[in-house]
């Protein structure tokens, strides 16, 4: 089940990075649910962040996420399903965000590159999820087949949790196939060229870059 923990971790990182790309000024409306000095986090903002992140983790609609949030076992695996915990995460993030701005972090060129990468990746992720969300069906027979094949793996895990995990894995496998089909189609439609001469120079530069040398031994060490 380490895959879920990894997915939660990287989703958190993505949300935190993307937060740096936008202003903290509230654009969601609603009533304030937390304040940091004069900066308000509203109930609408909390829900927007919460469901966007949980959908990216679980590939489930709002109603199903609310059900997960009532399941003690799911809360143990992902404490951020609890909105109070999620709000605390937002507050901590906002505190560091404000400090980062005060320290001039947005002038950092490496961060700007990271923001570009994050923005592009999240747009692609969201586009793919929305494009194929109604094209992927998972039958109970598929779930039961995998469960029976991997029964030992799910020993001690409640059946409903095991089934949800299996559905997520099947969904990802089928989604990967859809992505490959999409990319293959797009490659056929476009003319793609690589400057191999320049690329070889880049590759050679990596190979020939000075490597960190081991510290030389002193005469005393050599004689031992």
Task: Give a description of the structure.
Strand 1 (32-36) and strand 2 form a beta hairpin. Strands 1-2 form a two-stranded antiparallel sheet. The chain folds into two domains: 1-134, no CATH class; 137-190. The longest helix is centred in the last third of the chain and has 31 residues, at 159-189. 67% of the residues lie in helices and 4% in strands. It has 224 residues and is mainly alpha-helical. It has helices at 2-19, 43-58, 62-68, 72-77, 83-102, 109-132, 140-149, 159-189, 196-208, 219-223, and strands at 32-36, 39-42.
Secondary structure: elements and pairs:
Blueprint: H1 2-19, E1 32-36, E2 39-42, H2 43-58, H3 62-68, H4 72-77, H5 83-102, H6 109-132, H7 140-149, H8 159-189, H9 196-208, H10 219-223
Going by helix content, strand content and strand pairing, the class is mainly alpha
Spans of at least 5 consecutive residues with low confidence: 20-24
Which percent bin holds the helix content?
55-70%
* Major β-sheet profile: 2 strands, antiparallel
**Helix-strand pattern, N to C?**
HEEHHHHHHHHH
Mean pLDDT: 86
Task: State the domain count.
Answer: 2
Which descriptor suits the 3D outline? extended
Based on CA atoms alone, the radius of gyration comes out at 24 Å
Span of the ends, CA to CA: 50 Å
Beta-strand residue percentage:
under 5%
Query: How many E strands?
Result: 2
Q: How do the strands of the widest beta sheet line up side by side?
A: 1-2
Number of helix segments? 10
């Amino acid at each position: 089940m380490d895959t879920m923990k990894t997915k939660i971790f990287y989703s958190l990182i993505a949300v935190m990075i993307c937060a740096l790309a936008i202003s903290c000024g509230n654009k969601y409306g609603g009533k304030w649910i937390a304040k940091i000095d004069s900066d308000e986090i509203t109930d609408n903002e909390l829900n927007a962040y919460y469901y966007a992140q949980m959908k990216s983790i679980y590939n489930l609609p709002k109603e199903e996420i609310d059900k997960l949030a009532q399941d003690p076992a799911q809360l143990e695996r992902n404490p951020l399903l609890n909105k109070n915990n999620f709000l605390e995460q937002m507050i901590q993030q906002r505190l560091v965000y404000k400090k980062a701005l005060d320290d001039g972090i947005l002038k950092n060129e490496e961060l700007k590159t990271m923001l570009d990468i994050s923005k592009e990746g999240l747009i692609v992720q969201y586009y793919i999820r929305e494009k194929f969300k109604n094209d992927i069906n998972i039958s109970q027979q598929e779930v039961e087949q995998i469960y029976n094949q991997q029964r030992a793996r799910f020993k001690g895990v409640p059946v409903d949790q095991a089934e949800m995990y299996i559905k997520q894995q099947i969904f990802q496998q089928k989604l990967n196939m859809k992505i490959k089909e999409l990319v293959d189609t797009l490659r056929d439609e476009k003319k793609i060229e690589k400057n191999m001469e320049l690329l070889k120079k880049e590759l050679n530069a990596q190979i020939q870059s000075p490597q960190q040398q081991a510290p030389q031994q002193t005469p005393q060490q050599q004689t031992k």
